[in-house]
Design goal:
This protein is mainly α and 233 residues long. It contains ten helices and no strands. The chain folds into two domains: 30 residues; 148 residues, Lysozyme, CATH 1.10.530.10. GO terms for molecular function: peptidoglycan lytic transglycosylase activity.
Length: 233
């Protein structure tokens, strides 16, 4: 009569397997979290070859492509809200006030702030004092009042939620420009049409498009630079 073979005992018992699974879950979470943040840090690193791309473009085109890093997060946030390329906002800021480095932020014809809005465009052309070029005769208290702007159909935006829509506040100004450009045609893909509405000049359109196209080429690199700078601060 053949002997019955003894059943082999499992190398690891069911209880031990369950214990190891429970033990490995938090370890897996820790490892995944570490890898995720390490990858995010690597993506934020600006590589030397990427910087050389900027240098080559600058040398070839003959102008400085540098955008002040502190403005890039504002461009990006405003662009996302109004569906406008952030690089287009940067181009307007560059052309209008050279990134707010002009001696005065009021033009000879009356355009005001970082992005050079005529008061009637900012507050709304339905304001009773608005005519001609759009300087108007709007009381200072009304120029920055979101309720007045909403009443007269202006493009001014209170971006930082302080109850004031101020063309001399950098966030309000950029968000207001994004608001205008979006409604003027950018959200429909009509970028040049929107630029012309911003300033009725074909030469102005060419200038904005020139900077916009260059910034588009290096936009991802500039975003990484801004991210790296923010992480270091």
């Amino acid at each position: 009569m053949a002997k019955k073979k003894k059943a082999k005992k499992p190398f690891i018992s069911a209880g031990m397997k369950l214990f190891l699974i429970i033990l490995l879950i938090p370890a897996s979470i820790v490892i995944y979290t570490f890898v995720f943040f390490a990858w995010a840090d690597l993506k934020a690193i600006v590589l030397p070859e990427e910087l050389s791309v900027i240098e080559e473009i600058q040398e070839g085109e003959g102008f400085d492509l540098t955008i002040p890093e502190e403005y890039i997060p504002i461009y990006i946030a405003a662009g996302k809200k109004y569906n406008v390329p952030w690089t287009l906002l940067a181009a307007h800021h560059r052309v209008e006030t050279r990134f707010s480095t002009m001696k005065t932020l009021i033009s000879p014809v009356g355009a005001e702030g970082h992005m050079q809005f005529m008061p009637c465009t900012f507050v709304g052309w339905d304001h009773p004092s608005c005519e001609g070029l759009g300087k108007g005769n709007i009381p200072e208290s009304e120029k920055t009042d979101p309720k007045v702007i909403a009443k007269y159909g202006g493009y001014g935006v209170d971006a930082n939620g302080d109850g004031i829509a101020d063309p001399f506040d950098i966030e309000d100004a950029i968000y207001s420009a994004a608001n205008f450009l979006s409604k003027a045609g950018v959200r429909e893909g009509k970028i040049e049409k929107a630029i012309f509405q911003y300033n009725h000049s074909q030469e102005y359109v060419k200038k904005i498009m020139y900077y916009y196209e260059q910034y588009e080429r290096i936009g991802p690199i500039l975003e990484k630079e801004a991210l790296a700078a923010a992480a270091d601060s």
